[in-house]
Design goal:
alpha/beta, Rossmann fold, 2 domains, 6-stranded parallel β-sheet, 45% helix, globular, catalytic activity, metal ion binding, HAD-like_sf, Beta-PGM-like
């Protein structure tokens, strides 16, 4: 491996956004008198994209309209000045100093992705933002990651991908990148089961510098 690119999921990886998503989905369930818990979110929603979520959870309703409403409520809750995941700006600084390319690879709608990156002050750090719904297949298919690699002109084996969900981890691992799990909402064992080669708590984890040093070495 000759490390050339860092690829980041967004929700739960570059910022802690799950509490907002959990709350908004809670409103949808409550409005319909349906039982809801964080376990429901974890098992049925986390890491999936809207085209799958809404037809499955609310059959017979207008899935597109529901998704539009849900994302508008999410954006209303996400305020400018929201902190990024600890250590994320510093890792991006390191990447810039090392000449590593960077990209965001997310199943979030583009309007949400732009809003989140602006809210955490990192929008200007990314020229490449790949949206799952704009690919023929979103995560857990590896296509969004492969598209990011194509745009950055890098090989899979020269990339690190950071993911926090099992669905996203499957996509990252299948792309051929070295997949690192960010344990912001899912326990390490589940991320390893989905293909993580290593896990960190966030980007300040003391294990991360050693991983980067090892992966910088040709042939790692």
């Amino acid at each position: 491996m000759a490390l050339k690119a860092l690829l980041f999921d967004l929700d739960g990886t570059l910022l802690i956004s799950d509490p907002l998503h959990i709350a908004v989905f809670g409103e949808f369930f409550a409005e319909r008198g349906m039982p809801y818990s964080e376990e429901v979110y974890e098992r049925q929603i986390h890491g999936s994209h809207n085209a799958e979520i809404f037809p499955r959870l609310f059959p017979g309703e207008d899935a597109v309209a529901l998704a539009t409403e849900k994302e508008a409520r999410f954006r209303d809750r996400l305020q400018p000045g929201t902190p990024p995941m600890p250590g994320a700006p510093e890792l991006l600084d390191l990447g810039s100093a090392e000449g590593w390319a960077v990209a965001v690879v997310t199943n979030a709608p583009r309007e949400n992705a732009e809003h989140m990156l602006r809210a955490i002050g990192l929008r200007e750090r990314f020229e490449v933002i790949v949206i799952g719904d704009e690919c023929s297949r979103g995560k857990p298919d590896p296509e969004p990651y492969l598209e990011a690699m194509r745009q950055l002109d890098v090989r899979p084996q020269d990339c690190i991908a950071f993911e926090d969900s099992q669905s996203g981890m499957r996509a990252a691992a299948r792309s051929g990148a070295f997949a690192i799990g960010v344990c912001s909402g899912v326990v390490p064992d589940r991320l390893h089961e989905a293909g993580a080669r290593a896990t960190i708590t966030d980007f300040t984890d003391p294990a991360l510098p050693g991983l980067l040093d090892r992966l910088r070495e040709p042939g790692a």
